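ok, trying the design again with the full structure, not the truncated one.
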């Protein structure tokens, strides 16, 4: 947060992390000061005890007095080291927590911006298509084209709503899969064909027939659809998507690949995080909310499977999901 002075200069108000650092520094200074006073007080007490003993005619060894002073100092020094160690560990953990919360707040801000755009854009498009149909005389071919585009935008809204509801169920541990033996070859072909017709994106598929797995129907549909939409978003100006399904030994491998620019190395470890999308939502051109791959990873793990991101050749990205057959 920043404010302007009467002269127009910007002054940044101290954030909670800066206040925390100042507080830790103050505690450290106070600790050093009280440690010094404790050292001096122990030395003074032992010296007074020696003087009182001497005044009573008792014999006091100067060597034993020095040893006792050294022991007290070592004890205080040891306790001080423990205190500093605990203070340092607390500082590190608190700093990590601040960073984690700041990253989460930034991602949530990006999510709200993206959701606003994701809802507003297709709604505006559907409204425009309906106005076009009601206000203009169009040929049958033009009407069908407008209806197809309106259907595609409606599909975007439906997919977005399903992802948000599914993410909420996942976070609340309310998603209960219903496993059944599914012909995923047939399902994959149907999902791919529907996506191709709805988006007019070039999708080539190599699907081994008759592959049956124990899976949740809704979850498998969500996995495939989110991977297809992700490939469409990051596949370049004219996306080309390749889908394959094959049995490899005791495993079933589902792959979805695009021919876009690929994923940067610094983003590969975070693309499955909730809300995470590379860049800033205010400048990013691709559509999305940062929920798709988060949902995919959760559902894949729910099936006891593994998902890996690999660089596609010669360009783009490829997601490989390995199911146990």
């Amino acid at each position: 947060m920043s404010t302007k002075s009467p002269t127009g200069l910007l002054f940044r108000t101290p954030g909670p992390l800066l206040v925390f650092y100042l507080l830790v520094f103050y505690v450290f200074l106070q600790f050093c000061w009280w440690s010094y006073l404790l050292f001096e007080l122990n030395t003074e007490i032992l010296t007074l005890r020696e003087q009182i003993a001497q005044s009573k005619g008792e014999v006091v060894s100067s060597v034993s007095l020095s040893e006792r002073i050294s022991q007290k100092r070592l004890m205080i020094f040891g306790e001080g080291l423990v205190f500093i160690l605990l203070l340092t560990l607390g500082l590190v953990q608190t700093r990590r927590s601040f960073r984690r919360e700041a990253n989460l707040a930034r991602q949530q801000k990006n999510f709200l911006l993206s959701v606003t755009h994701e809802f507003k854009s297709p709604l505006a498009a559907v409204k425009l298509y309906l106005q076009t149909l009601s206000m203009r005389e169009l040929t049958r071919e033009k009407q069908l084209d407008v209806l197809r585009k309106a259907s595609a935008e409606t599909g975007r809204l439906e997919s977005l709503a399903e992802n948000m509801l599914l993410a909420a169920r996942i976070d609340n541990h309310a998603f209960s899969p219903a496993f059944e033996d599914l012909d995923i070859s047939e399902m994959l072909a149907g999902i791919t064909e529907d996506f191709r017709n709805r988006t007019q994106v070039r999708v080539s598929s190599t699907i081994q027939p008759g592959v049956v797995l124990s899976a949740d129907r809704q979850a498998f549909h969500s996995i495939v659809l989110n991977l297809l939409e992700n490939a469409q978003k990051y596949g370049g100006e004219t996306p080309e998507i390749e889908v394959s399904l094959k049995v490899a030994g005791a495993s079933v491998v589902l792959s979805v690949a695009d021919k876009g620019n690929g994923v940067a190395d610094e983003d590969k470890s975070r693309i499955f995080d909730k809300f995470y999308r590379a860049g800033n939502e205010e400048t990013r051109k691709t559509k999305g909310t940062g929920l798709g791959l988060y949902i995919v990873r959760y559902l894949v793990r729910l099936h006891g499977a593994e998902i890996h991101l690999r660089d596609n050749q010669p360009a783009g990205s490829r997601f490989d999901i390995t199911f146990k057959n």
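Keeping the full-length input from now on. Strands lie at 2-4, 10-12, 179-183, 202-207, 212-216, 240-248, 251-257, 306-311, 317-324.
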